[in-house]
Specification:
By secondary structure, this protein is of the alpha+beta class. The chain has a single domain, classed as Ubiquitin-like (UB roll).
Length: 85
């Protein structure tokens, strides 16, 4: 069954986009995570600099690289660097 990917945005990424989650449609066979990241930058240009320094998770696991496949029904998360202390 084809379902969209839920993209969860945290910290400054959430602030730049103005929402916690974005629905992203992927083909049934999935696509590389880098394509989702590139699409997010096209859709939300102000997010570009943040994406370049963020870490990404698929189904609660940090990606080793952006060539990993994201499939329908997966959850994808954008974690920018966090400040504080």
């Amino acid at each position: 069954m084809l379902r969209p990917v839920q993209v969860h945005l945290f910290a400054s990424a959430r602030q730049l986009v103005g929402q916690r989650t974005v629905r992203w449609t992927v083909p049934a066979g999935g696509l590389p995570a880098r394509e989702i990241v590139a699409g997010l930058e096209r859709r939300f240009p102000r997010l570009g600099p943040t994406l370049r320094v963020s870490r990404f998770l698929r189904n609660d696991r940090y990606l080793a690289d952006l060539e990993e496949t994201v499939r329908p029904g997966d959850e994808f998360a954008v974690h920018p660097p966090y400040g504080g202390g």
